[in-house]
UniProtKB/TrEMBL annotation, chain A:
InterPro entries: NorD/CobT (IPR051928), VWF_A (IPR002035), vWFA_dom_sf (IPR036465)
Annotated SUPFAM superfamilies: vWA-like
Stated name of the protein: VWFA domain-containing protein
UniProt domain VWFA: residue ranges: 504-686
SMART domains linked to this entry: VWA
CDD domains the record matches: vWA_norD_type
From TrEMBL, chain B:
Stored InterPro entries: ATPase_dyneun-rel_AAA, CbbQ/NirQ/NorQ/GpvN, CbbQ_C, P-loop_NTPase
UniProt gene name: norQ
Location of the CbbQ/NirQ/NorQ C-terminal domain: 198-282
Domain of life: Bacteria
Domain ATPase dynein-related AAA: 51-185
Swiss-Prot/TrEMBL keywords: ATP-binding, Nucleotide-binding
GO molecular function, one term: ATP hydrolysis activity
Lineage of the species this protein comes from: Bacteria, Pseudomonadati, Pseudomonadota, Betaproteobacteria, Nitrosomonadales
Name of the protein this chain belongs to: Nitric oxide reductase activation protein NorQ
Residue runs in coiled coils: none
Length: 688, 283
């Protein structure tokens, strides 16, 4: 069959032949003229269906042919379904119904197309929404997409796509309102009461849950209105007025002190009078109290441990006579009553992460429970035990260096305690870096642009002994000096040169077993982006991985030494960074600080990429001992003029960071996937 | 067409005098709402002839505090906004040529020392390190300023006071203050005021009612939670006052907040849109 389009006269002849139009005094000129503009494939489909319909009835064939000529371009792939809908209508109700059915189908399809053009994907609003939510009160929440809108009290899931509203702005607003309502569920205690006793009394549990979601939406809207009246207005606009019989309930749930218990009371009342189906309100998602309360229970246990640990550190660091000399002093005090500050009275007594945990507990429980004020035992934090025998290196060679370690319990050093080995960094797939560069090509381009701007153009250096231009200010000063009898300066020129940032940066990459998976991928991707960016800046930089297994095997992996270029070999070593054993951090800081000190630059920066606190095999280095040793190592680095900064992916254990790095010298990233995007920005801020 | 008349010598001299450092004498009390004991500490430092360092985020009231203290102590004030091209001569002074004569022109620091004024070096870390060492002899027991060009050694009168400010929230490793400089100063930490205090400041400075001020303060608080998550800094009190002033002039609150708060803070689209959402949520 020829692929060229049929011309109008050819189409007219074909239609005439199919529908016997000449005999019926009809002309196919008009539909043929319309069909001429369509692709050949569509022309053939229309002719095919006109023929099929004509076998049932000539009039039906004509109707299909003439309407298809008008509608085919808009229907696209739906053309066949459109014709079938028309044929079904003809079989049911005759020709008049066919025309109506065909027109309705086409209109509905057009509206759907219009809508899908106005619809938006979650990805387009994710960044905006996550910042919006971050600014709101309450605990930090993650944002993710899923088939329905709901929250487990830590993550908000929103639909992957919304095309409910007639335009993009409306759909964006709907996303925002959905997210705000889910935030309000976590903020205003929707999961602080167990709805199961009430739900068990409902013959249809799912219907009961839907009503719980509606009543909670009424209550939460009022809660939002107190703090954020504009947002409450947006919600009210979106839902329209509550149906008549629900208006009174909505008013009662808008009382200032209403809680989720009041919503359950409304459910009980409704159950007694007989519940119909819930009104359809677009911004109300679904509720899964079982999942949310499970997550909540785990969070409460975790945060209790964080608060108690922090109180313990405060208590333990109270100066006790003889504490420093007591070598049996445990890293964490034993379970029991301690004289500690009352966090309910003064949350500021706690370090930042513990303060956040305490606030989160108060959000979940309304107050800090009495057990939070007791001293902790070993705490909830448990490292991933990388007890894989195959990963234990056999120590057969002499260490490359011995390092002292600080024992805070003795208040003295353990000399030559850590055995450091410089290992050969493993290599990974050379294609991997190319894949990352392709995947993040746009991001790399924008980072490079920003970094090039940071580098700036050649800067005129005034008052030089020689240069490309005469410095008029210096000439005037020199003349003035000469005339006033003073010795004029010989520095009379401007020399244009590239700004010397004079900066050396050491990236210390955590290769502990706990980084396996997402964290390790994120670390490697981040390093690729960093290298691409720093190459644009011209800073001197090195990348070393660190891991180990007890004090006798502290391993350092040179991925890129200062002298190395960012070439194929370096890229393969970045690809080869993998999760290994433990993180005895103090010795790594000391060794890498030493390497950094050999750089002849004015500014020196040590950046740690990590997913948790210092830890090593066995219990000794875990907890306060490791933190104190690492803090000491960072202080030593500071005394040498090295600035330290830590980027960590450790949402629940970052309470030690202010102790180690001081305020404003660390970033906590709650999601490994965000690390590659954030890392370059952090570096820009650090060195801008 | 006539050629322009060459300037007469006395006119040139008059022009030069317009370049002289202005000593600001504050006749009216600059509004400042104390949030702690900063007024007492500053006054004590002034009485003991000690230099003062103010630390805190941008727009939280450091400059206003210095103006207030200059008025309170009845001393003239010289303010220098530091930048990376600031040279020692820019601070101390230089010879200028007038016709075939030379005229010495005091820089702001020298002018402040001679006048017994408060010299306020704002954002000191922005200045080059080789420039800021010139302040060292003024900050220890010598309290003197050597002017090498003139062979002069100016001893500061009792009323001279040096005040510097910087924002420790800037994480740049290249913009740190050296310990040898830091340890010469009495330091005061500044932060955003408590919400009720900040609302009172916004009412007073911005000319809006208490309800609008509270909403602006609420918005400011929300933006501060975005520090490190899209914003280098949240909105300072200064920005809230700017928005209040626009509202007081008749502008719609959302428009005023967008122009005075959201746009100055963020360029990145997601952050900018999130700020717009926050404004809409509050107003």
């Amino acid at each position: 069959m020829s692929e060229r389009k049929l011309f109008a006269h050819e189409l007219e002849a074909r239609l005439d032949e199919l529908l016997l139009l000449s005999l019926r005094q009809r002309s196919a000129a008009e539909p043929a003229a319309l069909l001429e503009a369509l692709p050949r494939e569509t022309q053939d489909r229309v002719l095919h269906w006109a023929g099929v319909a004509a076998q049932t009835s000539d009039d039906l064939g004509w109707l299909i042919a003439s309407l298809a000529a008008e509608r085919a371009s808009g229907l696209g792939a739906q053309l066949d379904d459109w014709v079938r809908a028309g044929l079904d209508a003809y079989d049911r109700s005759g020709l008049a119904a066919t025309r109506k059915a065909l027109n309705e189908f086409a209109e509905t399809h057009a509206a759907r197309v219009r809508h899908s053009q106005e619809g938006i994907d979650f990805a387009t609003v994710e960044g905006r929404l996550s910042r919006f939510l971050q600014a709101l009160d309450g605990r930090a929440l993650k944002l993710a997409s899923g088939p329905k809108a709901w929250t487990d009290s830590e993550t908000l899931w929103l639909p992957e796509r919304l095309d409910v509203a007639p335009d993009v702005v409306g759909n964006q607003r709907l996303y925002k309102v959905m997210a705000a309502l889910l935030w309000a569920q976590t903020r205003f205690g929707s999961f602080n009461i167990d709805p199961e006793p009430e739900l068990e009394l409902w013959p249809d549990r799912e219907r009961g849950l839907r009503w719980f979601a509606v009543f909670e939406a009424m209550r939460l809207e009022a809660c939002i209105g107190v703090e954020l009246p504009g947002l409450a207005r947006d919600i009210a606009l979106l839902r329209g007025p509550w149906p008549g019989k629900l208006a009174a309930v909505a008013e009662s749930l808008a009382r200032p002190r209403a809680t989720a218990a009041d919503s359950l009371a409304c459910m009980a009342e409704l159950r007694r009078v007989g519940a119909g189906d819930t009104p359809i309100i677009p911004h109300i998602g679904v509720m899964d109290p079982v999942a949310a309360r499970r997550v909540r229970a785990a969070r409460i246990a975790r945060e209790l441990a964080v608060v108690r640990r922090a109180l313990n550190v405060i208590a333990a660091t109270d100066t006790k006579p003889g504490a420093a000399e007591n070598s049996d002093y445990p890293p964490l005090a034993a379970e029991g009553e301690l004289q500690v500050p009352d966090p309910q009275a003064d949350l500021l007594a706690l370090p930042p992460a513990a303060r956040e945990a305490a606030k989160s507990l108060m959000q979940d429980l309304g107050e800090l429970p009495p057990e939070a004020l007791h001293a902790a035992g070993p705490g909830a934090w448990q490292p991933v035990d990388g007890g894989d025998e195959s990963m234990t290196p056999g120590v057969t060679t002499q260490p490359d260096a011995f390092y002292d370690e600080w024992d805070y319990r003795r208040g003295s050093w353990r000399h030559g305690w850590c055995h450091l080995y410089e290992m050969t960094a493993p290599v990974g797939r050379h294609e991997w870096v190319d894949e990352v560069r392709t995947r993040h090509a746009h991001l790399i381009r924008s980072i490079r642009r920003r970094f090039e701007a940071l580098r700036g153009e050649d800067k005129p250096q005034k008052r030089q002994f020689d240069g490309e231009e005469i410095d008029l200010d210096a000439q005037v000063d020199a003349r003035a000096d000469r005339m006033s009898g003073a010795e004029p300066s010989p520095r009379l020129f401007i020399h244009r040169r590239r700004i010397e940032r004079s900066l050396a940066v050491m990236f210390m990459v955590d290769m502990s077993g706990s980084t396996k998976g997402w964290v390790n991928d994120a670390e490697r991707e981040s390093l690729v982006l960093l290298c691409e960016a720093i190459e644009a800046l011209g800073d001197s930089y090195a990348i070393y991985g660190f891991s180990g297994w007890t004090r006798t095997h502290c391993d350092i992996y040179p991925v890129k030494r200062f002298a190395d270029r960012y070439d194929a070999a370096t890229r393969q070593r970045i690809a080869g960074i993998e999760a290994r054993d433990y993180t005895r951090m103090g010795v790594a800081v000391r060794h890498l600080s030493g390497l950094l000190m050999r750089q002849n630059t004015r500014h020196k920066l040590l950046v740690t990429l990590s997913d948790g606190r210092p830890d090593d095999y066995g219990d000794e280095y875990r907890g306060r001992y490791g933190i104190e040793d690492t803090r000491r190592a960072l202080l030593e680095a500071r005394e040498k003029g090295i600035r330290s900064y830590c980027v960590t992916i450790d949402r629940h254990g970052a309470d030690y960071l202010p102790q180690l790095y001081g305020p404003a010298h660390y970033s906590v990233i709650d999601d490994a996937k965000k690390l590659p995007q954030k890392i370059a920005e952090i570096y820009r801020k650090l060195t801008g | 067409m006539t050629a322009p008349r060459p300037a007469a010598r006395n006119e040139v001299r008059a022009d030069i005098h317009t370049l002289a450092t202005p000593l600001v004498r504050l006749a009216n009390e600059p509004y400042y709402h104390a949030t702690g004991d900063e007024v007492e500490v500053f006054a004590a430092a002034a009485g003991s002839r000690l230099p003062v360092m103010l630390k805190g985020p941008t727009g939280c009231g450091k400059t206003r505090f210095v103006e207030h203290m200059a008025w309170r102590l009845k001393r003239p004030l010289v303010t220098v906004a530091c930048h990376d091209d600031l040279t020692t001569a820019d601070l101390v002074g230089r010879y200028l040529i007038v016709g075939d004569e030379t005229v010495w022109m005091d820089g702001p620091l020298t002018a402040a020392v001679r006048a017994g004024a408060i010299c306020y070096l704002d954002e000191i870390v922005e200045a080059r390190k080789d420039t800021t060492v010139v302040i060292h002899p003024l900050t220890d027991s010598r309290r003197a300023l050597p002017v090498e060009k003139r062979g002069e050694y100016i001893e500061a009168p009792p009323d001279f006071m040096l005040v510097i400010s910087w924002n420790p929230g800037y994480q740049s490793v290249l913009k740190e203050m050296k310990p040898s400089t830091r340890q010469r100063f009495v330091a005061l930490d500044f932060d955003y005021p408590q919400a009720d205090t900040e609302a009172r400041i916004v009412v007073h400075e911005g000319g809006v009612d208490a309800d609008t001020a509270q909403k602006l303060v609420k918005l400011g608080g929300l933006t501060r939670k975005l520090k490190g998550a899209g914003l280098d800094e949240g909105a300072g009190t200064r920005l809230l006052v700017h928005a209040a002033q626009l509202i007081a002039s008749g502008m719609a609150p959302a428009t005023a907040c967008t122009a005075a708060i959201a746009r100055p803070l963020a360029d990145e689209p997601d952050t900018r849109d999130a700020l717009d959402d926050l404004i809409r949520a509050v107003f």
